[in-house]
Amino acid sequence: MPGDSPRSIAWKASARRDKLMSRQYEAEVPVRLQLILDGTISMRMGGFGQRLLDQSLFVAASVARSAIAAGDDVGAVCCDERGIRHMLPKTGERGFRELLRSFAQFSDNPAPPPEVLTDEQQSLALSIIDQRYPHLLQPRVNSIPWTLFPILPWNRERYRSRFLLAAALASLFRLSLREHIFLVQDDARLSRITHRFFTEERQAWLAPVVTLRNRGIHSGMARVQMISEALHRLTARARDNEVFVILADLLEVSHGFSELLPAIRMARSRHHKVIAVCPTPRFQRPDEDSRIPRTTSAEDLLLAAEQIHLSEVQYDLHRELRSAGVITSLSGEPQAIRLIASEMELTRGGRTRAAGGRR
Length: 359
Known about the structure:
By secondary structure, the protein is α/β, with parallel strands linked by helices. It folds into 2 domains: 176 residues, Rossmann fold; 82 residues, no CATH class. Helix content is 46%, strand content 11%.
């Protein structure tokens, strides 16, 4: 047929029939799709629908629907601060509904609340307010009452910053006067409302603010270790024709990605496919236009710098993953879903690459 690769021609059969015949590959067993979902803190930052986890779950649910419709089994492994949880492979409409229910329960894991108010947290919040809401720090709007205490200069400066921050946050979130007074006096309340402010402004988490449940690691290495362990377990119990899809924020931990390479090499040595989908903060892959600031405002310059940094990290990670035999895609765009569906179709047909082209 037009479009068939010359590599698929069955020469002996063609010679017997005096007509070109091409091979049609068929797998002996159905393909099994295994989804590895990262649900750690950085994936849950932001409001519902705006989180990286929501982006990953969109891709996971879409490819699960496609695989189950083709008669394949779909399993999942969920990784977060609570540990690693396995979902047995499901098939059929009932299995798809169970997967969606498990995804919903997994995404409902709330972020651990901040426990202490640190000077770094206070300073960062004030700097963000000064950039985006400068009118809330003007003396005629946010005045500090005179008081004798505290006497020491550094304690007095800390008290001044605390009072300014509490008044600005009370104005932003429209708190009552009583709640405003509680913010000034109560560390836990001010820390929680500051944490909420960071979340809505889509700012990075601060290590001293969040205490991970059952883990004391804030560098992202715990995430890589959990994903590596999950991939080892799946590979050890895998059968033929399995496709592992890692949906994780690997861009943030690209410096520690070498911890995951042994598990990937083990899966590739057993002829399984490994696909990595890395969600991006802006729900789109960085391009040339996004790296050029639209205006000279601080927000547009910061966004352009973020996209430039993301492009550099993306290039390094893509090169390292490709060298390990991993197929990569960025963000929750339809391209990622089509890529996974294409690889599933190739695996289902018993081939390793698309006909007539390179991958």
